[in-house]
Amino acid sequence: MTTIKDIAKEAGVSYTTVSNVIHGRTSRVSSQTIAQINEIIKRSGYAPNMSARSLVSNSSKVIGIINHLVPKASGGFIADPFHSAFIGAVEETLRENGYYLMLRTVEDSMDLLSFLRNWNIDGMFFTGLFEDEFFDTLSSVDVPIVLIDSYINHPNMQNVGLEDYKGGYLATKYLIENGHRNIAFASPPIRSHGVVEERLRGYRQALDEFHIPYQEQFLFQGEFDVQSDMLLSRQIAAHKEITAVFATADILAAGIIAGLHDIGLNVPNDISVVGFDDVTLCQLISPTLTTIHQDTVEKGKAAVEFMMNRLNNNRVEEHQKILPVHLIERKSVKRI
Amino acid sequence: MTTIKDIAKEAGVSYTTVSNVIHGRTSRVSSQTIAQINEIIKRSGYAPNMSARSLVSNSSKVIGIINHLVPKASGGFIADPFHSAFIGAVEETLRENGYYLMLRTVEDSMDLLSFLRNWNIDGMFFTGLFEDEFFDTLSSVDVPIVLIDSYINHPNMQNVGLEDYKGGYLATKYLIENGHRNIAFASPPIRSHGVVEERLRGYRQALDEFHIPYQEQFLFQGEFDVQSDMLLSRQIAAHKEITAVFATADILAAGIIAGLHDIGLNVPNDISVVGFDDVTLCQLISPTLTTIHQDTVEKGKAAVEFMMNRLNNNRVEEHQKILPVHLIERKSVKRI
DNA sequence: TTGTACGCGTTATCAC
DNA sequence: GTGATAACGCGTACAA
């Protein structure tokens, strides 16, 4: 492997000079040596040893995307299509900025702390963080943290999220305007400071505006797997008065639609459904899914931008970036 | 940050001793000191500095999952559900073995080489590699490489794949046995040494066995996006004699089904469809998709297992691990 | 059973 | 303009 020393030797200079050239501190190096060194660098395919840099500079150029494994569940991480698109966008933007991405699952605070120290991690992304014990650890760490889809506010962290409230509102309003009054709200378990809670607020706001009473029994909570969705569908269908469902994620919506089909109900003729996210899936199921659109790539970019600001300026201007959502009309809602 | 020195100082021993304890070379350390050192390690939350280790030991414990960005396309990487599930499985298994995962997109050979040197990467995973110029670079590198879903054989690399041939065979045979004779083969562009080529071989084998002539015009190639799928569907529908489609990926199958619906054709009544992969999607679309099942998590585990064997023993016994596939019968095929 | 000293590749400080 | 040299945290050969 070519090192700075090798280059210095070949050029007949000291390694300081080589290092200076590499870092653009060329003010006091003869243009001859600069040219020569650059030539050698190019020819030899020199690439800096990041471990050495990390050791001496206290910056590793490594950013972690952390997956907090709450129970000992498998896969979770990257399983849903939104997540993976997001990670792809993050990697790309990070790379453009000279950073590297590590994926890491941690089981508890200790795990996380070890990981940070192991690699001298420069920054972290967290998705869907809630206010649990784990969060306390996080807030005491002095590494830049960008939270995605979380409603926790903390001076050391920045948030990238969506207009969740508005999304919930738009979806519900759209259903109401199409004549629906008994609208189910389907979601994963609602946790405080989470996005679902906000979407629920939007749902209630829309009901309120149209003077439709909010009913607890129209709340249905499940997990993100086909089994659980089947169950949800049955529960929803059991309420004959329900004519529409707002599901807080497209995969959930798709699962519910499949479940309804399974028990002989037609969407949208018997029940209308609106989703959230606008993943590719929406255009593949039938009926195609009316949903709330979010721009995942933009989300990834925004997250990295925040990170870079923290990393470079160290001056924090904003703490929040809320990306817009809008409704995409497809075929899963019927006017009644 | 706690270092080995700090621990040594606190325990009143030299750092060699601490290092020895950490590495289990306890044979010649008093059990007292061992206990004491372990206690301090636990209490202080000591985590080794991997950069320092990497520098001195020539092993970084970092494995890369490489995304070779052929043109300057975006996202590609992780976009399809199979990929993300695979990455999740790899991360988990890697972690259990004390390794770390970096995700990295590279645009060309230089990029890759730099990345390897930057981090002293211990090993790499590649998905769907073909025999292009890029491959030559790869083969000259002395880092363990595990290829996923690739039919390139190279002494320095190992392969984890599927019974692609059998999968293609099973899917086609199933269609034939259900009375179909004019069966389209839909896939992304067929490249030599790729999985699609093998699945096509299986397709042809099944046709052969039933004395059905193979027809070039029944081959349809597209990309993995909804637009392209719509086009494909139209092309397929234009051949009135075609009664069934074997698509080499579920997302493609789903896209085609959506496209067929769009032009007023019903699946499976007008056209039957069989997919490949058995991703969650299959159960969400309607009709639910009959497909060839593969075990993605097992694939991830197998890949890591290969990697670990290379990394530890350095003795290479097998070069190939082929995971089984089988057909899952759902509702997208009609007996005619 | 424990300690000393060196080197890994890099950066930064200070001197020439 | 350029060059020595210490330091980052760790592993290891060798010495005691």
From TrEMBL, chains A, B:
GO terms for molecular function: DNA binding. CDD domains: HTH_LacI (cd01392), PBP1_LacI_sugar_binding-like (cd06267). PANTHER family: LACI-RELATED TRANSCRIPTIONAL REPRESSOR, XYLOSE OPERON REGULATORY PROTEIN. Residues 3-37 form the HTH cro/C1-type domain. Keywords: DNA-binding, Transcription, Transcription regulation. This is LacI family DNA-binding transcriptional regulator. It comes from the Bacteria. SMART domains: HTH_LACI (SM00354). It comes from Caproiciproducens galactitolivorans. Residues 2-57 form the HTH lacI-type domain.
